[in-house]
Design a protein that fits this description.
Distance between the termini: 34 Å
Order of helices and strands: HHHHHHH
Number of helices: 7
Shape: globular
Length: about 180
């Protein structure tokens, strides 16, 4: 009897993953460079890499579990560093940063909850439209904090509302998965 075939491990060092990881370097640059122009450029570059990594992964047939993990972590590192830098530079109020990071906190809680509950371990987490909208608005709020401070508060309110809706959306998705997996 032949030994079962082994599948190759999912490579993590792919071009799309390198593009995703570049956001960590961009985050460091955002913190280190205090100039508005430089930060706007870094924000633009981070936004571009966020679109480019997924496009490359699909185009090169390099979609992977590593990429699905690296991409959102790189997003969160960039956003957290940028919000922290703007709060430290008095360009964003701490309460605004807290609201802007609400969805990210909920995602982390959801991730660990999903890993702790046996019937959720097999659920594949994918980006959802509301979650993507929150990310776009978070980046828009960063841009507003740099260039149009009067827009920050309305954008923060919008991000908070969409973050709550995205949390509900992900929760409902998990309940539907639960119902699907528990049916005989």
């Amino acid at each position: 009897m032949a030994a079962p075939a082994r599948t190759a491990p999912d490579p993590w060092w792919t071009l799309p993953n390198v593009v995703s990881l570049s956001r960590v370097v961009l985050a460091a640059g955002f913190v280190a460079l205090p100039g508005t122009g430089e930060r706007v450029a870094l924000l633009g570059a981070a936004s571009l890499t966020d679109v480019l990594d997924g496009w490359l992964a699909r185009r090169r047939n390099a979609v992977s579990r590593w990429g699905a993990l690296i991409d959102p972590i790189a997003d969160r590192i960039f956003v957290l560093a940028a919000f922290g830098a703007l709060v430290a530079g008095d360009r964003l109020q701490p309460v605004h940063a807290a609201v802007l990071l609400l969805r990210d906190v909920m995602v982390v809680i959801g991730f660990f909850t999903a890993r702790a509950i046996p019937w959720l371990r097999g659920v594949t987490f994918r980006a959802r439209p509301l979650g993507k909208a929150v990310t776009v608005l978070q980046l828009g709020t960063l841009l507003a904090a740099l260039l149009a401070p009067a827009w920050v508060t309305p954008l923060v309110i919008l991000v908070g509302a969409l973050a709550a809706a995205a949390t509900v959306d992900y929760t409902l998705l998990l309940w539907r998965e639960r119902d699907r997996t528990l049916k005989p």
